[in-house]
Amino acid sequence: MAKAKPIRVENLTMAYGQFVVMNDLDFTCGGGEVTVIMGGSGCGKSTLLRHMIGLIQPAKGAIYFGDTNFTGADEQNQDAMKQDFGVLYQGGALWSSMSLEENVALPLQHYTRLSEREIRNIVAYKLSLVGLAGFEDFLPGQISGGMRKRAALARAMALDPDFLFLDEPSAGLDPVSSRRLDELILQLRNTIGCTIVVVSHELPSIFAIADQAVYLDAKSRTLLDLGKPDDLLARSKHPEVVEFLSRGEKT
Amino acid sequence: MQEEAGAAEVVFQVGDEGNAVEIVLSGDWLLQGERPGLEEIGKGFEGLSEGGKVRIGFNGLGQWDTGLMVFLQECYTVAKARGLFVEEQGVPEGVAKLLQLTRAVPERDTGKKDDSRGLVEKIAHDAHEIFDGTCVFLGFTGEVVMGLGKLARAKKIFRMVEFVQVLHQCSVGALPIVSLISLLTGLTMAFVGAVQLVQFGAGIYVADLVGLAMVREMGALMTAIVMTGRTGASFAAHLGNMRVSEEIDAFQTMGIKPVDFLVVPRLIALVLLMPLLSMYANVIGIFGGYLVGVLMLDMSSTQYLQQTINALSMTDVWTGEVKSFFFGMVVAASGCFYGVKCGQSSEEVGKAVTRSVVSGITFIIVVDAMFAVIFHILGI
Prior knowledge:
A: six-stranded mixed β-sheet; 9 helices
């Protein structure tokens, strides 16, 4: 297992035209750790994730994967770096015209020279990892929301990525499925050893999986605090962070 | 919330200390009932200068709902705009709590409310948008050309299964509607032509009229219009939905070009199939004319077909075919462009479909007119 690389977000300013979403974000997601980006609805968590995966260019600042400046790279190099990314979108974003097997197989077909048989075996393994063995021929429209998320996670892991980005993985799932997904994320961190960035505002998930939590504040439009969720709850100087982590019970 | 207490009423009283107004609200303040509006607030605040005070009080307030809250919000907005200070007295507990909620999160400056542009600014803004749109379309065209280049270098950029599905959708799937429209076009032209030509004893020339019109113009044109409404719109809706459900983003974050994977196969399929569909439409249209000629004008089958063959040359046939090749490009490009560049809501998908159909048909007519001029200059 190669040493997991960190992600460094350096003086990042995110904006839609004239509207600044977040100012001067500066933090590092530790290599091989789970970093949770948290904050109230509409504070810019998903927007930050979209910057990190190259869907939006920052207004200012840079994002480094290991020692490589991702946001400063040209399109070709960015595309090459994206081979090391696995992304789970909020709604799964499985390609609806393809079966689960085809969804997971596509990145393998696109980036490797593996034989069809080998690809089929890898797909079966990845789907079994997320508890979907036997569902290879199902279309995304034929399975439940939770299963779609798990299938999308299998697709995100298809190329054994160095960096895994999960956008609200447990949103819309029942508590049991949500807990299982959290366990799966921890298993991935421990076994594959990739750097995982999770966007979430689900407190049980945050406390269960985060090695580091980053709190984005919509009011001040910047990062207020970061650290382990338990430490933040106990010692953060910012009442907003404590209020968020205690579900409004402590201020 | 309380017992009924009569219609909503507001009394404005000039305050004791001057440059102040006391507003006393009473009665039922319901959304469905009669309520004082902005005009009354404006009148009530007349005479107050900047820095003046507005004191809001309640006396015998009956039932209330959002109607009261909206009135209070309007009072605050007008007061703020005039630089007045607002004080509240004896606010019922429920009202106070709701007011507190509305003030809990201060209004954020999203930069989206300033619509106070003058005419010149609006024209400049629209021109800028058109320029931006053109740049985006040129970028899209460049991506398509690069995708075709990769394909020419035998690089696999899309799945063959996907391509075959699109081929099927654009060919077999389109035959019934193309058949119907072409048949009716041929029939209509023959009817209209027959009415005029028979008066001069030239009914036989209905075959020439229908044959030439279908092959040179109507076959390709009608097929293109049908395909814009059917296949182009379907491309825009499908790709737009993929944008909304983040499927296109998923391609991008894997380093797979959505244009290569989704647009190129659709473009190739339509460019390949449009000339064939157009040829098919020509045959069906001529058959429509044949029905009128044989059944209405008492021409024999041989006579009609011979007259059609004599009227047509290979030049006529390929002029229609060349046009349909370009029409195929227009239909695929408009459908895919608006689909891939669609916004991320279901409303945007609807707009993308409308734009793809409108711009598709418009550009088909434009391209057709351009070919008419070119063929005229070339003497074809």
